[in-house]
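Q: Got a minute? One more chain.
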Amino acid sequence: MRRTVFWWLLRFEEVASPARRTDSLVGVVYAFIALDVGFVGLKMSVGLASMAAVSGIAVATCCETRQANISHPNFNGLKAGLFLGQKAEKSSLKMQSSNRISMALVADITKFENVTMAPPDPILGVSEAFAADKSDLKLNLGVGAYRTEELKPYVLNVVKKVEKLMLEKGDNKEYLPIDGLVAFNKATVELLLGENNPLIKTGRVATAQSLSGTGSLRLGAAFIQRYLPGTKVLISSPTWGNHKNILNDAGVPWSEYRYFDARTVGLDFNGMIADIEEAPSGSIILLHGCAHNPTGIDPSTEQWKVIADIIGAKGHIAFFDVAYQGFASGSLDDDASAVRMFASRGMEFFVAQSYSKNMGLYAERIGALSIMTSSSDIASRVKSQLKRLARPMYSNPPVHGARIVANVVGDPTLFDEWKGEMKLMAGRIKQVRQKLYDELTGKDKSGKDWSFILKQIGMFSYTGLNKAQSDNMTDKWHVYMTKDGRISLAGLPSSKCSYLADAIVDSYYNVK
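A: Always. Here it is, folded:
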């Protein structure tokens, strides 16, 4: 019987008009399914409820009589319904009904009716809009990914070398342990704290390889939700857009502390300190280790000391997001100085790390979560629970990128080559930043101080443009950026700095 119905299903595909084939076909498919799931031995008739030219009408199958019944003479599925009944008779598949059985199948009722369309991602949506723009003038300054002067993605030469060595070695693709590659975790913590840091020597760091920075933050949020329930996380205003999503999805409460001063386009340090002081004792303070995203504004060394003093005095816990170590200034040590300051004070804190930017491993999703603790015993217990949280979340992390990092950091020659390439990337961004500043000061005759462009660090610049002005940048000038005024200098070639300066000056002065 199964083959008979399927034959007429194909036959119906030939007879029905393309515009109405899908809806009529649904009825036959459901009849086929009904016969397939266990009505063998019954004399079956097919009753097809009236069906319009759009999907959404119920199809009923009744196992009561011997005759095919079509309830609507104009139904396009008529031929299919008759073919099905006729073929069953011709095949001599006599079915005796021992019980009165009725079954209703509905083609268009879905359990997902209340699922609404999600808004575009505020960052990734920028790239989608950019791709649809046909203008030759367009610039994509939205996504934080490094580009060469020719606006090409850059795969580090040291990464290519290591991948070739890995291929020659014939590494397998077996699962990693839940907490990741041992050599990777060791290299990652040593890069962060320094090879001879006492925390490492005394086993007080619990590290788990995770899915880049986002996955590491999400794992940390899950840990907070389970073992520090009800603890509020304070995040900077503004911050990376995904921070809020991560905390919300983990069920972790959060609030904001002041960070950006729109008047100076700089750090609102007094507001930041006041908000951290006023937070309930034991709160978690999410800090950007270097190259604050989206502003590019970092506290000075002296300001970091004050922040550490207050966090310590209030019994807060710091949670560092370190996405740009080595990529911001070109120095791995300089970019880790804030984290190392906290470590030197024996404070307990979290760190999420990523190798997307500094090693260009965007698609490999390579990062780690480390929790600094007060004893090796606590570190062991914390690590066991990180593994317990990771297991149902993603089971274990990817191996390819982890091996790249371990091989690069573990070989002195390759390590030096990597540091050189980081300086190259950071240097290009610094040059573009300087040229943009020069163009702005040359074009703007009002005397406005644009020096904040030079004071910011890393791949992003917070222009101070509002949403309307940012919209003008896109609508008139084809410059794609996030609506908070952030631009990625990593996607800006020096040849376009003059054009971008024209767009910024026009948007700043002519749009309110």
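A: Residues 412-443 form the longest helix (32 residues).
Q: Perfect, thanks.
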